[in-house]
Structure formats: structure tokens, C-alpha cells
Amino acid sequence: MLDPLVTLAGAFVGFVVGLTGMGGGALMTPVLVILFGIEPLTAVSSDIVAAMVMKPIGGGVHWRRGTVNLGLVKWLVLGSVPSAFLGVMLLRHFGSGAALQANVKFALGVALLVVTVGLIVKPLLAARKKPGESQMPLVVKPLPTLLIGILGGLVVGLTSVGSGSLMIILLLMLYPRLKLSELVGTDLVQAVPLVASAAAGHLLFGDFKLGLTASILIGSVPGVFLGARFSSRAPDHVIRSCLVVVLLVSGLKLVGTTNITLAVVAPLAVALGVTYAVVAGRRVKKAQRSLSERPLGLPQAAE
Q: In this structure, is residue 290 part of a structural domain?
């Protein structure tokens, strides 16, 4: 049976997924369990099957925009697809897997909070880069990228969390010069076979509910499409602000923060994110005006 409130929640989460590449499992699964009283295993199974439809839509938008690094996708998929199915098998082996899921989600929550700090500090460190460094071609590191795929796939199979949250974090650490729009696009495309593998496992061994999945999809499909279109066009400082908000709220929820605390922190995080985006946008426009007003042939002043 369709639930319009679940559909509304799916639209919001879908937009976040399309915009940032993360938040699907980290947001949707807790929403289903906490707000709608869905059993954890049912929430995990139904959410990950819905993600199997959402990811190709967002990935397709980024593919057309050219914000996908196929070299990274190849190594991520090689690791994530078999490990995602293995994760579902482990979940079945350990029964309901409640304790295991709690530990994995807590560790992931800590990681999200750590990277939130990194995203805030990173622009300050980026100012120390040499001119032209960010235009250097990206060199793919096969083994570390493969290991990211294996770890991400395993966590997704166990909890439905991680295809965006965990893997974007690790990719950002491994490839700090990768543009955020390309990071999101790459993650969404590699997540298509990853989520399909995990979904197949949950269809076979999980607790999939067709009505719940349909309710999620009716809202999330248009949401992820709109979010991906905005993400593929948006400047890095806008996407960074969204990432910080999503990471902070998701991380706090995963480590067990109370709903009252989240109700206070979430609006503050959104306000700070908007403020950062506005201030950073003004700085970018100011720098562009200064560059355009510099006389031709005049060398740039040494920093």
C-alpha cells in the first residue's frame, strides 16, 4: 500500500542523493525506522531496492554532463559488486544483524563527522596550492581505489549505508584534487552495479516490501533527477555546503544523537551552509572580476 508521507520523504532524500551523491541509506533508512516505525531489516531491504532505480537516474545526468571519471568507476566496481552481495550473505548468516549494523553505523557516523571538519578546513588549505595544480590530470591509483570499492560494497550490503557516504569520503581523501561535481558523478555511476548487486541479495534473502519501495520511488525518482541536474551545474562551493550539512546531520544520527539535538543542530547547519555558500560565491565573483580587469600581458602578482 502506498504511503504519501513516505513518498514525500523519498522526494527529499532523492534530491539530496542527486545533489551530493550521498544520503540515500544514511538518511532514508533512519527516516523509515524512526519516523515511520518500519522494521530495520525491512527498511534496509526496501530502501536499497529503491536505490537500484534512483542511482542510474542521477548517474545518467552526470554522464551526459561529462562529470564522471571512468577510470575510477572501473576499479570501484571491480571491488564493490562482489563484496556487496557478500555483505547481504553475512547479514543473513548473523541473523538480524542488529548489533553488527549498530557498530558499522556508529563507525560510519564518526567518519562522516571527521570528514565534515575536513570539508570545512579544506578551502583554507586549498589557498596554499600552486597556480595550475588543480588542472593537472588525475592519476588513478588502482589498488587503493579497489579497496575502497570492496569496503564500500561490504558496508552497503550489510546496512544499505555507504554507497555515497562512505565511498565519497574515502575518494575525497585519496583524490583531494578531484572536483566535487566529478566526485558526485563518479560515485553515482559506480553505485549502479554496486546497489544492483546488494539489491539482488536483499530480494533473495532480505525482507523486501513492494508497497514501501514503490512509495519511496514515486518521490525519489523526480527528486534525484532534479538534484543531479543542479549538482552537475553547480559550483564547488555550493556543493561543498550541501555536503557539509548532509554529512553533519547523517553523522550525528548514525552515532545515536537524540532527535531533540538534531532538531536544534539541523537548522543551524543549514543556516551556516547557506552563509558559507553566499560568502564563498561572492569571493569567487570578486576574484573573477579582478582577473577580467587585469590588463592583458601583465603578469600575476606573486602570492
A: no
Q: What is the pLDDT of residues 104-147, one digit of tens each?
A: 667 667 777 877 776 676 666 555 545 555 556 788 899 999 99
Residue whose C-alpha is closest to residue 14's, from 223, 242, 232, 249: 223
Grid coordinates given for 65: 554532463
d(CA 74, CA 70): 6
Q: Which domain holds residue 188?
A: 4-235
Residue 7 burial (10 A CB sphere; 0-12, 13-18, 19+): middle
Q: Identify whether 261 is part of a domain.
A: no
Confidence of residue 78 (pLDDT cuts 50, 70, 90): very high
Q: What is the pLDDT of residue 66?
A: 86
Is residue 88 within 8 Å of residue 205, measured between CB atoms? yes
pLDDT of residue 8: 93
Burial of 107 (0-12, 13-18, 19+ CB in 10 A): middle
Higher per-residue pLDDT: 40 or 133 = 40
Collapsing DSSP to helix, strand or coil, 161 comes out as coil
**Helix, strand, coil share (%) of the chain residues, nearest 5:** 80, 0, 20
Asked whether the predicted pLDDT for residue 283 surpasses 70, the reply is yes
The answer to the question of residue 82 being in a domain is yes
Q: Phi, psi (5° rounding) for residue 112? A: -60, -40
Measure the CA–CA gap between 229 and 251, rounded to whole angstroms: 25
Would residue 284 count as lying in a domain?
no
- Kindly report, residue by residue over 151-165, the tens digit of the pLDDT: 888 888 777 676 666
How far is Cα 131 from Cα 74, in angstroms, rounded to an integer? 30
Q: How many independent structural domains does the chain possess?
A: 1
* One-character DSSP codes across 52-85: HHHHHHHHHHHHHHT---HHHHHHHHHHHHHHHH
The distance between the two most distant Cα atoms of the chain, rounded to a whole number of Å, is: 70
